[in-house]
Structures are given as C-alpha cells and as structure tokens.
Amino acid sequence: MTTSTKTRTRFAPSPTGFIHLGNIRSALYPWAFARSTGGDFILRIEDTDVERSTQAAVDVILESMAWLGLDHDEGPFYQMQRMDRYKEVLAQMQQQDLAYPCYMSVEALDALREKQMAAKQKPRYDGTWRPEPGKALPPVPEGVKPVLRFRNPQTGVVAWDDKVKGRVEVSNEELDDLVIARPDGTPTYNFCVVVDDIDMSITHVIRGDDHVNNTPRQINIFRALDKEPPVYAHLPTVLNEQGEKMSKRNGAKPVTQFREEGFLPDAMVNYLARLGWSHGDDEIFSRAQFLEWFNLDHLGRSAAQFDEAKLRWVNAQHLKAMGDDALAPLVAEQLAKRGIVADERLVAICGLFKDRCDTTVALANWAAAFYADITPSEADRAQHISDAVRPAIVSLAAKLASVAWDKTSIASAIKEVLAEHGLKMPALAMPVRVLVMGTPQTPSLDAVLATFSREKVIERLKTA
Length: 464
Ligand code: GLU
Hints:
Blueprint: E1 8-11, H1 21-36, E2 40-45, H2 55-68, E3 74-78, H3 83-95, E4 99-102, H4 106-118, E5 147-150, E6 157-162, E7 166-171, E8 179-181, H5 189-199, E9 204-208, H6 215-224, E10 231-235, E11 238-239, H7 255-260, H8 265-274, H9 287-293, E12 304-305, H10 308-321, H11 324-336, H12 345-353, H13 360-371, H14 378-384, H15 390-400, H16 407-421, H17 425-437, H18 445-451, H19 454-461
Parallel strand pairs: 1-2, 2-3, 9-10, 11-12
Antiparallel strand pairs: 4-5, 5-8, 6-7
Helix pairs in contact: 1-9, 5-6, 8-10, 11-12, 11-13, 15-16, 15-19, 16-18
Glutamic acid binds next to loops.
C-alpha cells in the first residue's frame, strides 16, 4: 500500500461533557475500520469551545478509550494548539480570494434575518460584502472588525456518497457564505475540521449524523482548497432506553462508569459494535472477529436504542467465555474497592461462580464470602436451619475436621452424614450453604467448601 491509499480515520470528540456510549461508538467504528484495513487511527480533541471544554472531560475520553482498547496511532492533537496553522490557512484563503471580510454588524444581520423570516424565507447571509467583478462594495465602516466569510459556490450541487445515508445532494443555493473567522481572528468550527482533516490526511470521516448538515459546507471548503474530500459515513443517533437522544442531560452514564459496574471491555466493544452495525445475525463475537468482519457496508441506517438488559446479557456471555486466570485480576480490582485483598483462590472462585454472573461486580459479590464476614439473612436461617437438621450439621463439622481437604473427600463426608442422619441432600446442603456462603443458592457444595479453608468452614458451621 502506498501512503496515499492507506486508510486514515479519526475520532474528534469535543471535551464538553463526560463521554457516553453514544459518543464512544463514534470512536469504535473509525478505530475498527483503521484496524481492519491496516490503516491509522487519529485522535483529535476539538477543544475550541473554551468555555465548555474541560481537562476532566479530556481525561475521561482518554481513560475510556484506553479501557476499551481503542488505541490511536497519532495524537491526541488539540485544536487549541493548532491556531497558528488555522490562521495561516485563513490568510492564504483571503489572499486567493476564497474568503472575504464582511463588516455587516450583528444588528444588521438580525434585521436581515427578521425580514427573511417575515417573508417565510430561510434566513441567510445576503452576500452584501461578497466581492464580485464590477460590484461596488459598501464603504468599510470605521472601527469595525470584520468576520471572514467563505466564498461558497452559488450554483450547482454538493454531493457525496455517504456510507450510511447513500447519495446526498445539497444545492449550493441552500448554503450561504459561512463565517470562517470571527472578528478577533479566531477560526470557526467547520473550518478547523476541514484544515485538520486535510493536514491529518483523513481518508474516511465516520461520525454522528448530527454533523450531516456541516458536510456540504465542509466539502466546499475542501474543494476550494483544491483537496479531495474524504469518504463520509454519518452514523444514526444512539437513543437511550426512553427513546430520547442519548445525552448527559438525559442521564447517560460516562463510559468509565461501566468499568466500575463490572463490564468487560470486549463485551462493551461487542455490544457497541452491534449498536449500528451487523454481521448477519451474529450477536456474540470477540474483538478479533469484529475486526475481521467490520466494514462500512453494513452500518445501520436507523437509530439504535441502548438496552441495558441486552448489554448485561452480552457481558455475561463474555464473562463465561473468559479464562478464569484473566478474570481473576478484574474481580480482584472490584474486591480491592471493598478493602478486600484476594489471593490465588480467586481463580478457582471465578471458575465456580462466573456462570451465574453478568458482571465482575456480581462475581465479586460471591467472592467476598470467601474473604470477608457473611451475615445470612434471618429469613434464610429460619427457612433452612431447623432443630431437625442441627445434629447433622454438628456431625458434618466434626467429620470435616479430619478429612483430606479436597472436593472428593468433602463429598464423601457429606454423603456419610446424610446416611447417618437419614437425610436427603437438599436438607443438609441448603443450611450448609446458608451458613458458609450466606445464601442457599450456590454451585456444587463440595466444590464450594473445598475452596474455603477447613477452619473457615468449621467456624461458620458452628454458627448454626
Ligand atoms: N467534535 C465533534 C463532536 O464531538 C465531532 C466532529 C467531527 O467528527 O467531525 O461532535
């Protein structure tokens, strides 16, 4: 591959709020496209909204991407650090007559807008200051700093083949001359995006469809600068569970919150991948499979809706499939937050309990019984620990004091006690589970007991 055909994608978040799942999906797809085509993925922080951008939001972006394994090859580039470059291009455009100063005051613009609205027209700049051969411009007012406007073509259409929306055509008559620099000389948003996409040699822009109205304007600037625009894919919105556009205002959680809640990065990638893209009916897949399958031809056209129950189910599938060795450190992290230091038994504990868990937090809840005190509920005690079964529990404690401490020997001890006391398995197993694990529902009792120390089991059986 030559450098000119190498795929280059980017994620260009504005750090104005904590990044949520709807936002990070706009990172996942360009990342996956770059990875699956052997290209580069660039991270660009669009921080020109100085009032609303925060370092904390940048940190959450970086942390979320690192957690999900969405690694970038270049950047992060910060737009605020590229001001000189934008100003250089602005000067060049003015020199080449691609942009012109406009001295129309805010009041005059407002008046124009009102007049157009009253006449049921779309409000747009009327080209007063646009120089044309033979046209006399108004006298430059004194002491007024102009904005710089892009000389948008006045005829023809701007068209592109969107990878999601198909062919989109916008008539240039619909577009007025965009302000590309403010009176203080600072560049505006759409202009910076184009300069960046050019300088960063972006080949594919994959972003939310809230930007689709910017695209014709951006394409015109590309063309004015004699550059070929990239391929565009505008992703449909992600809705929250209530069917509203996912946003922080409507209670969307920051991506990092899902890590706290015990979700696995690969499960998140799997779930997010399906939120707007499909590979047949495949629901559960690994990161490697996803990268093998991903392309821009199977992006969904309609809004996708977040469904936490589905995410939990996907997470549970990944949890089950994951090796206990790999799972243990993640559960150890959850335990550490509770002040519990785990040990090597955690690997076996993960193996025993992962099938009944949907998050590492749920797994940590089970594991905690091995490392911290438990308090069976009064209801469970009342239901399962009767006077009739107490003698059998005492016998079991006595037998367990001397058997070899492994699953098979523990199983034989339990069977002997059942025979001696004429009991069926559940009659003894339920109370023992309540006493040792704090709940009557656990995996196979011999395996559970073998994972505790002998002392701990006997100590807990004595609380019957
Ligand atoms: N900064 C924009 C946003 O966060 C993305 C712009 C783009 O991808 O072109 O919505």
